[in-house]
Write a structure and sequence with these properties.
By secondary structure, the protein is an alpha/beta fold. The protein has one domain: 3-Layer(aba) Sandwich (Rossmann fold). Helices cover about 40% and strands about 10% of the residues. Its EC number is 5.4.2.11, 5.4.2.4.
Length: about 250
């Protein structure tokens, strides 16, 4: 019988900035009340129904990622499971777009430009500068103390985020193939970066991938060959997932 192991990737619950439709990036926005409810009513029932258990959880150093992980572990009665925080799993840095409402930016620069900044593989937003109200809050936040000198970004493309995540994915991949049951509570762009690393899809294809909040995405690996067993499975109500995926893709109001 083929030995397999599963990896679960999950985007954190909605943050205050998600609710306000703002670019968030490296700003440490907490989960909103709705985001907490998403974790409790979307992620956890799907994980329980699938009888998934975990030995370790990966999160970023941003609170919305860590808080989602803690909520899930608490409700699964496995708060003892360690959480590995890594700054390289932080959301893509949206530069000077940080804190701006997406609709306002679209009205100013055009929807095509905003979608290029949001989805384009190599399109880098304008770098954050001192005039941005979140500049000093981000640059002086002690959660980023482990970021090596010279690697602290002022803006990132999707491609840059994919490259930043790659070493962490290699570490996770080794754990998965050793039989460790891993949950990754990450951010939208980081989840997309992981999808590209795992599925090997093209740069053009990953631009069109959208990850809804709190929907567990399950990958199963053949431990002998290292290959994927079937396609990724999104756990939960499929109509809800389709609706939320379309909502993520849109610029919104």
């Amino acid at each position: 019988m083929t030995k397999t192991n599963r990896l679960v990737i999950l985007r954190h619950g909605e943050s205050d900035f998600n609710i306000e439709n703002k670019f968030c990036g490296w700003h440490d926005a907490p989960l909103s009340e709705f985001g907490v409810q998403e974790a409790l009513t979307v992620a956890i029932p799907a994980l329980v129904q699938s009888e998934l258990e975990f030995d370790v959880v990966y999160s970023s150093v941003l609170s919305r990622s860590r808080q989602t992980a803690e909520l899930i572990l608490s409700k699964l009665n496995c708060a003892y499971v360690p959480i590995k925080e890594d700054w390289r799993l932080c959301e893509r840095h949206y530069g000077n777009l940080t804190g701006c409402r997406k609709r306002v930016v679209a009205d100013r620069y055009g929807e095509e430009q905003v979608q290029a900044w949001r989805r384009g593989y190599d399109c880098v937003p304008p770098p954050i500068d001192e005039k941005n109200r979140y500049f000093y809050t981000i640059c002086s936040n002690p959660i980023f103390d482990d970021v090596p000198r010279g690697e602290f970004p002022l803006a990132e493309s999707l491609h840059m985020c994919v490259d930043r995540v790659k070493p962490v994915w290699k570490e996770v991949r080794r754990e998965v193939f050793q039989g460790t049951r891993v949950l990754m509570c990450v951010h939208g762009t980081v989840a997309r970066a992981l999808v590209q690393h795992i599925e090997g899809i093209s740069n053009e294809a990953i631009e069109k991938v959208n990850i809804p909040n709190c929907v567990p995405r399950v990958y199963e690996f053949d431990l002998k060959t290292g290959g994927l067993v079937g396609a990724a499975i999104n756990l939960g109500d499929q109509e809800y997932i389709r609706r939320k995926t379309a909502q993520v893709a849109a610029i919104g109001d």
